[in-house]
Recover the amino acids of this structure.
């Protein structure tokens, strides 16, 4: 049987699929929104075969759903592990250093591996910031200024929000599916 991107079991809080408690401490809320966006990207891929995941469905753009998954693995690693936690690690995937890391070089033959790398990177990023305070800071190598973990969470949420919009369009152009749980997902 051919591998397809797995359906995502959405996290719920008190029966709410949005899964973000609305009257809680800031860290819980930021973790919830970031988790929701991570799950949304995977939901947009659910049920698709590797050839569909690498399709560049919004020409002339080179974006594909698999490219977005790979890109977000790179962005997660860059901000949480390399920048904030100071871990001396390389890239998840090779690619240009122009902000499009992971988008290029997609290969349908490696889709399952790339999804596993994305999930593993999320786990490693969560571990890197576990128990760390939102007010903890580091000097950003790309911005040359001091930024906080809180800022990283907000950057990641906006990065996912932007790319999840791309994923909506790519999914619709790939098989016509719209909404949170595409047909076949």
């Amino acid at each position: 049987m051919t591998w397809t991107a797995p359906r995502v079991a959405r996290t719920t809080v008190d029966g709410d699929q949005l899964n973000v408690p609305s009257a809680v401490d800031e860290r819980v809320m930021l973790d919830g929104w970031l988790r929701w966006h991570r799950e949304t990207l995977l939901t947009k891929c659910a049920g698709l075969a590797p050839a569909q995941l690498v399709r560049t469905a919004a020409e002339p753009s080179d974006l594909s759903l698999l490219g977005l998954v790979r890109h977000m693995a790179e962005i997660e690693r860059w901000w949480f592990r390399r920048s904030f936690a100071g871990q001396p690690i390389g890239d998840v995937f090779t690619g240009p250093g122009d902000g499009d890391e992971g988008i290029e070089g997609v290969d349908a033959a490696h889709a399952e591996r790339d999804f596993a790398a994305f999930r593993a990177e999320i786990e490693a990023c969560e571990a890197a910031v576990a128990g760390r305070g939102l007010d903890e800071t580091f000097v950003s190598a790309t911005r040359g200024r001091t930024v906080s973990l809180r800022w990283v969470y907000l950057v990641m949420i906006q990065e996912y929000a932007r790319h999840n919009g791309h994923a909506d369009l790519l999914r619709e152009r790939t098989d016509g599916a719209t909404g949170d749980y595409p047909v076949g997902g």
